[in-house]
Design a protein that fits this description.
A seven-stranded parallel β-sheet has the order 3-4-2-5-6-1-7. Strands 8-13-12-9-11-10 form a six-stranded parallel β-sheet, sandwiched between helices. The chain is globular. It has three domains: 166 residues, Rossmann fold (3-Layer(aba) Sandwich), CATH 3.40.50; 157 residues, Rossmann fold, CATH 3.40.50; 122 residues, hef helicase domain (phosphoenolpyruvate carboxylase, domain 3), CATH 1.20.1320.20. Helix 11 runs antiparallel to helix 12. It has 18 helices and 13 strands. The two termini are 16 Å apart. It has 479 residues and is an alpha/beta fold. The longest helix is centred in the middle third of the chain and has 29 residues.
């Protein structure tokens, strides 16, 4: 397993491993997996250019290709695919991971829970199949241990930017923070949502003993849900069961309202308006058959009355100012803007286009060709700005990406590392993080900071340790 900072050669290590494998056995089959279609395509392009093999010896396999044709394509020597495609075709018996001489698990930190990597790893039983795991951002020691255990890893190399082997290659990443203050209208809506959440949690407290005191947090609510689920399994009393189910309905409503609060804090009125309209439609579709659903419906309507869907979040103006400064300072520039929400990505792309910027959005669930085309437009400078959701966070290599902007924050240190890793790759780069003060957005920011500090400590320890086997990674690949 190779643990390296973003932009410092993990894919090249995989390329070298593939070259060594083919040198030993020119007929060896290789499987390279990555979490997203754009990333799979990117790896395919690099290998096609670097390896002296016929182009038809390397292919990208996706679920968009009909199963009958995929069965034949699995005979290709080097295959690039998402783990979802690999797992589906393995279960359909279109392929067998044990037939490959080398399997690469890119973004290996995803090996956890029900992610397809886990099931694929368990199916690899051939001792002759070599495994290479790549990551820039393991979540913690437990995550590293899980990767080692599931993939039967017997050799780990970890390096930091400040390590002597990498220091001269690492580019400077400058990080700035902009703290955004919400206006009075936003604060008014915020207080109303918090009031409704507190009312629901107060009712729940009548039925269970749980920490549901203000301020409300998703952690408290999910902990209470877990407790109720346990109590429902244990109880034999029908009246007790009715009370617990009522409390559960209150918690489910509180979760919807917490989501509304998060959207208000980090995205603003336009995205919140869309979210509430969807929730109202869902409630109407199911029928307002319970006391709780009727109450939630009325509360959402009250929130809607305080919203001006055309009123921008203060972050939007801050974003425009940052881009204006970049445009005035740099002649040839590229920028990636990250947001958690597709509606926000759509809104920002339209806003930037109206302001004269060449912008496009990159979102999950879009067709592969569309995603790849958007990345190509940015790479070639046809557009300057790509507004991306999570699909753009992992692994994408955008040459000369001057700036990354966090329009919102994520509580995950892994995602923060991945976002930051989209700049300062081949050139020095800059990241600007927008944070709405005294909101859930700020809570998420500090959670990621705390988790990131723990990851750095773990990696520092790993980088100082000798590898599990004494030889270096390079020697390991060339023996």
């Amino acid at each position: 397993m190779a643990i390296l900072p973003t932009g410092l050669g993990k894919t090249i290590i995989a390329l070298l491993a593939a070259a060594v494998t083919l040198n030993r056995d020119p007929k060896a089959k290789i499987l390279f997996m990555a979490p997203t279609k754009p990333l799979v395509k990117q790896h395919h392009e690099l290998f096609t250019k670097a390896l002296t093999l016929p182009k038809n010896s390397l292919i990208v396999l996706t679920g968009e290709i009909r199963p009958g044709k995929r069965a034949e394509l699995w005979k290709t020597q080097i295959i690039f695919a998402t783990p979802h495609t690999v797992l589906n075709d393995t279960e359909r018996k279109l392929t067998n991971p044990n037939n490959f001489s080398l399997i690469v698990f890119d973004e290996a930190h995803r090996i956890s829970g029900n992610y397809p990597y886990v099931k694929i790893a368990k199916r690899v039983t051939n001792p002759a199949t070599r495994i290479l795991a790549l990551t820039a951002s393991p979540r913690d020691v437990a995550n590293i241990d899980e990767i080692i255990r599931l993939l039967k890893i017997d050799h780990v190399e970890a390096r930091l930017k400040q390590d002597k082997e990498l220091k001269k290659y690492a580019k400077i990443l400058k990080i700035e923070w902009k703290w955004i203050q919400l206006g009075e209208d936003y604060l008014k809506t915020r207080k109303l949502i918090e009031k409704f959440i507190d009312e629901k949690l107060k009712e729940v407290s009548q039925y269970i003993e749980a920490d549901l005191e203000p301020p409300p947090t998703m952690t408290k609510i999910l902990s209470a849900k877990k407790l109720i689920t346990h109590l429902l399994k244990e109880t034999q009393d029908e009246n007790e069961e009715i009370k617990l189910l009522y409390a559960m309905s209150k918690l489910n409503s509180a979760i919807r309202l917490m989501k509304a609060l998060e959207i208000l804090d980090s995205q603003g009125y336009p995205t919140l308006f869309t979210y509430i309209q969807k929730q109202l439609d869902k409630l109407e579709g199911k029928g307002l058959t319970t006391k709780e659903s009727k109450q939630l419906y009325q509360q959402l309507l009250q929130i809607l009355e305080t919203i001006n869907p055309k009123k921008e979040h203060p972050k939007t103006q801050a974003l425009l100012e940052i881009l204006e400064e970049l445009k005035n300072q740099e002649k040839d520039w590229k920028c990636l803007i990250f947001t958690n929400y597709r509606n926000t990505a759509k809104y920002l792309t339209q806003k930037l286009s109206q302001k004269g910027y060449k912008a496009a959005k990159l979102i999950g669930h879009a067709k592969q060709r569309e995603q790849i085309e958007k990345i190509r437009l940015l790479r070639q400078g046809i557009i300057n700005i790509l507004v991306a959701t999570q699909v753009g966070e992992e692994g994408l290599d955008i040459p000369k990406c001057n700036l990354v902007i966090f329009y919102d924050n994520v509580p995950s240190a892994v995602r923060k590392i991945q976002r930051l890793g989209r700049t300062a790759r081949s050139h020095h780069g800059k990241a600007v993080i927008l944070v709405a003060k005294n909101t859930i957005d700020e809570v998420y920011y500090w959670k990621a900071v705390t988790k990131l500090a723990k990851i750095k400590k773990t990696l520092e320890k790993l980088s100082k340790m000798k590898s599990i086997r004494e030889e270096s990674l390079l020697k390991y690949m060339t023996t």
